[in-house]
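Now for a chain:

_____
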Amino acid sequence: MAYYKDAKFDPKKKLRVISNEQPAADTGGVTRQFFNQLLHLLSVEFFHRDDYKIPIYNSHVVASGMMMLEGKIIVQSILQEGPGLLIFSPSVYHYLATRDVDGAIQKMTMTAPEGSSPISTWPKIVLDQLRDGLATIGFGTKMKKFPDLFQQLFVPGQPELKGVDVITLLNFPPSLSEEETTIKGCLLEFLQKAEAKMLQVFLVFTTGAPCLPIFGYGKIDVKFGDPLICLQSLTLPKNFPDKTTFSSSSKASRNTTGRSFNCV
């Protein structure tokens, strides 16, 4: 965490992420995967409750300023096309974005799971530390100005993922051979028929995180030929016997663990 305590910390500076025993050319996806895993671990270690989470409150968390550091990590993740921290209720998020207690109470009355969690029980001191971290390079100011826009980065329960959402991310080469056009059709049909869970697996496989790139930014470059070990791209074989084989191979490769990132 010393990196985030440094007075010269710049969340816009690109990280160089190296995975042990899993070589990859980081074109954005490896970093995205890193932040996805890091934020998940932090949410388990320093937050609690079930449906929606709030920071753990104890003397160590307060004295260490851990929540401020986590706020900086969230900002850095988002600025580098990584995920936000999708664990907060609408009311807790509203407080983080605006520090408006009355508005947070109004949000709470509209959200059933929070009925047993009065605002008086919130650990405001650590929430304020988290807000301080989110204020890095003016991010908090933008949150306060556009709270509804930024909510998708912090509150779970966004609309269920659909194939068309993923398809819009695909960036195919401008010129395709007949075989490549056939494979493109197989991929599009596979995504259109895929359920939300499989689409999340596909996104992890190609981008490093189970969610769409924030605010619609980010594309998945589709290539044909020998597999390239990198993320934020998808390399497909130039031919397949039929659509059924393509579909079964796609499902198998995306559920395989211990292999390089996106070798089909």
